[in-house]
Amino acid sequence: MQDAGFVRQAFASIARRYVVANHVLSLGIDCLWRRTTSKRIAKLAPKRVLDLATGSGDLAQAVQAACPDAKVLGADFSVPMMREAQIRHFHRLVAADGMALPFQDGAFDVLTVGFGLRNMASWPKALQEMSRVLRPGGRLFVLDFSIPRVPGIRQLYLFYLKHIMPRIAGWITCQRGAYEYLCGSIERFPSGKEMEELICANGFQSAHGTALTFGIASLYEAQKQS
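and the corresponding C-alpha cells:
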C-alpha cells in the first residue's frame, strides 16, 4: 500500500500545476472520462454525493453540473489541493482522511473517487469506509488509470508511463519525483477482474469495470450490499 505522509507531501508540492499537468499528460481525455462518469451518476438522480480524494474538484464539479439537484461534497486530506478547488469555484469541501471519514453511516447515495483510491494507505480499509458512509444500495464509482491489455498498446503505454510522462510532468510542475511515484503507482494498482474482486470483498456487490480509451483508464461501478 502507500505511504500516506509521502503522498500528502507529493500532492502538496504539485497542487498549483496539477490540473494543467493532467490535461497535458492525457491530451485532455481526462475531461471525457469525468463526463462519462458524471453521466452515469445522473441516471441515478442522487440527492447526496461524496467525491472522495476530490483534489482540485474537477470530478465533483462535473457531477454537480450533471446532477444540479444533488448536494455534492468534496473531501480530501490535502488542503493545498482543496485550495485549488476553491480557486476553480468549488467550495463545498471538507478536510478528511479516506481511512476515517467524518460522516455518519449511510450518509450518501453515491460516492465517487477519481484517481484517488490508488494513493490511499490501505485499499481494503478505504473501500470499507466508502461502504460505511453509503446508504444500503448506494453506488460507488471508482475512476482511475489502468494498464491496457492489448499487445502493442500495452507496451507503448508502459514506455510512455515510465520514460515520457515523468519528464513532461517534471517540466510542468518542477516535481519530477512526485510523478515518478504517481506513474509507478499506476502499474502496481489492480485493474479489471482483480479490482472488481477487491471491491466486492470490501462491502460491495456486482462490481463492474469498463475500460476507457483502450484501457488507459477504467471506471468501476458497484452497489453497496443491502
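(Above: one complete record from the training split.) Residues 142 and 220 are 5 Å apart (CA to CA).
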